[in-house]
Amino acid sequence: MVTAMPDSHASGMMHPLKGAEASPILTSAHKIAIAGLGLIGGSLARRLVERGRFVIAWNHNDRPYKEATKAGIHCVDSLQDLVTGKPDVLVLATPLVTIPGILKELAPSWHPSITLSDVGSVKGEVREQVNAAGLGEYYVGAHPMAGNECSGFEASSSGLLDQALWAVTVDEQTAYSRFLTVADMICKGADNALIALDDGTHDACAALISHMPHVVSTALSNELVDSADRNIAVALSAGSWRDMTRVSLTDPMRTRAMVEEDSRNVEALLRSVAQRLTNVADALHDGDEAAITRFFAQADPFRVFKANQRDGGDAENRDRESDGASDSILLDDASWREELLQSARRGERITAFLTTHEARIMTRAMS
């Protein structure tokens, strides 16, 4: 398997590709259709337009159209208009519950040249819906790790996706050319980075760093609401409370939908966190200093990782890229999916494709 090449990076040597020829001719996603002009769909549309991509968009109502048109987004009246425009990529940016109905409308007029993608925070269920609609061979999942507690096109902003990392999900039927098309939209079109995963890995990790924390954040806010001294507590609150409860300010129905869509992973994580909290509560009750010390010290690798970021690790990576000294990986036609998954597990993220089979990477790894 061809993976990152620490020895050849320094010398500039290239490892031979197995079953693939590196071509400088890259697939382009110049025309992009977006179904849904909410916070994420609207922010993506704005960003792509600002960077020279042609964007057509549909929304379930026309309220955003006036402002979207001012931003250079070409708004259309129907979902069918998105398909007949023959975009390179059609991105679903609507609530997951609406996707089956949207796919049912899109499928009869689908054109094989279009690659289907989305921006949902859960990938396994979306792929099931896409397969049920008969569009699985055209689908490449995507999830930009960006957002805030607001919603609607009026809250959208190109800057919401500044330095965003996208998770791109593939399976055994994903065509490499379609992956490259979505990668072009992300890396060149949106000036973002990506990692490539399978659906299960994505959904488990998204539950850990997003879905489960939304529940924990809401639990903290619920504790405050139930306190007889809540007004005193709010008066005393500062940075730690603000940061830990920010996502609890999200529309509760939106949060509920997100959590329920990944319920199995979230349930397991909540039980694990609850056990950790019970253990430290028991240690505090028993005066078990060793257990208390272990609890607070266990996160040291994450603290070191974040300290390195603050001390310029990311800036050093960006400087290496601008100097042309960044690392790269070569991808093989037969095993590119597994190679990309292992690359993600090493903490590598793709910032650009240099050829069809060579990708520039930046590493942000926790030891």
TrEMBL record:
Its EC number is 1.3.1.12. Signal peptide: none annotated. Residues 30-314 form the Prephenate/arogenate dehydrogenase domain. One of its GO terms (biological process) is tyrosine biosynthetic process. It comes from the Bacteria. SUPFAM superfamilies: 6-phosphogluconate dehydrogenase C-terminal domain-like, NAD(P)-binding Rossmann-fold domains. Keywords: Oxidoreductase. GO terms for molecular function: NAD+ binding; prephenate dehydrogenase (NAD+) activity; prephenate dehydrogenase (NADP+) activity. PROSITE patterns: PDH_ADH. It is an enzyme of class 1 (oxidoreductase). The keyword Ribonucleoprotein does not apply. The keyword Oxidoreductase applies. Belongs to the prephenate/arogenate dehydrogenase family. This is Prephenate dehydrogenase.
